[in-house]
């Protein structure tokens, strides 16, 4: 059975990818590494949701709380805000590829390929580049096909569902209309 390390951005976005990979015969291990999430309380809520999904679906999960470093994220995107998503993806997926290689996984992938709101082509291209020289190869799959199913299951299970991507910038974009005077 091929082993795959799946970067998990949160619980709700993990349900469909994990189930799909299990159905395809993969032994899935989750990897929660998201230094972009702000504030800490949001990071913890998403982490707990990812852990709960992993438990419900019977997979192991690696959590790197010791590597939660929003300052590293801000250093990566400062003065690059127009292309911040690329640098955010790179920060998380480079670490995923490193862990996959060191852990002797056959493949790595990410739940970021599930969301309709992420830059799908950019993520796939970045992962293809990251597999160069890495013992683990990138497994591409368009998980967006299971979008509605994943939402329904996460609601049924009561998994925390966030309202923004995770970074301070996306939170501001999501809620800024409420700050404008009437």
UniProtKB/TrEMBL annotation:
Pathway: tRNA modification; tRNA-queuosine biosynthesis
Protein origin, superkingdom: Bacteria
Signal peptide positions on this chain: none
This protein's record includes keyword rRNA-binding: no
GO process terms (BP): tRNA queuosine(34) biosynthetic process
GO molecular function: 4 iron, 4 sulfur cluster binding; epoxyqueuosine reductase activity; metal ion binding
Keywords noted in UniProt: 4Fe-4S, Disulfide bond, Iron, Iron-sulfur, Metal-binding, Oxidoreductase, Queuosine biosynthesis, Redox-active center, tRNA processing
Transmembrane stretches, start-end: none
Catalytic function, reaction form: epoxyqueuosine(34) in tRNA + AH2 = queuosine(34) in tRNA + A + H2O
Binding-site residues, [4Fe-4S] cluster: 9-10, 85, 88
Disulfide cysteine pairs (residue numbers): 165-167
Enzyme Commission number(s): 1.17.99.6
Keyword Kinase part of the UniProt annotation: no
Task performed by this protein: Catalyzes the conversion of epoxyqueuosine (oQ) to queuosine (Q), which is a hypermodified base found in the wobble positions of tRNA(Asp), tRNA(Asn), tRNA(His) and tRNA(Tyr).
HAMAP family: QueH
Family affiliation: Belongs to the QueH family.
Protein's name in the database: Epoxyqueuosine reductase QueH
Lineage: Bacteria, Pseudomonadati, Thermodesulfobacteriota, Desulfovibrionia, Desulfovibrionales
Chain's gene name: queH
């Amino acid at each position: 059975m091929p082993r795959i390390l799946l970067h998990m951005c949160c619980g709700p976005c993990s349900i469909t990818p994990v189930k799909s990979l299990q159905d395809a015969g993969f032994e899935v291990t989750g990897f929660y590494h998201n230094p972009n999430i702000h504030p800490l309380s949001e990071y913890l809520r998403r982490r707990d949701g990812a852990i709960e999904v992993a438990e419900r679906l019977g997979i192991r999960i690696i959590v790197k709380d010791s590597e939660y470093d929003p300052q590293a994220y801000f250093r990566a995107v400062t003065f690059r805000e127009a292309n911040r998503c690329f640098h955010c993806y790179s920060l998380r997926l480079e670490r995923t590829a490193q862990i996959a290689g060191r852990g002797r996984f056959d493949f790595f992938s990410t739940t970021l390929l599930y969301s309709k709101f992420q830059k799908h082509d950019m993520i796939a291209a970045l992962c293809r580049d990251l597999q160069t020289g890495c013992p683990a190869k990138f497994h591409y799959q368009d998980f967006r096909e299971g979008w509605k199913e994943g939402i329904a299951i996460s609601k049924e299970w009561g998994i925390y569902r966030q309202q923004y991507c995770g970074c301070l910038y996306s939170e501001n974009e999501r809620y800024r209309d409420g700050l404008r005077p009437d």
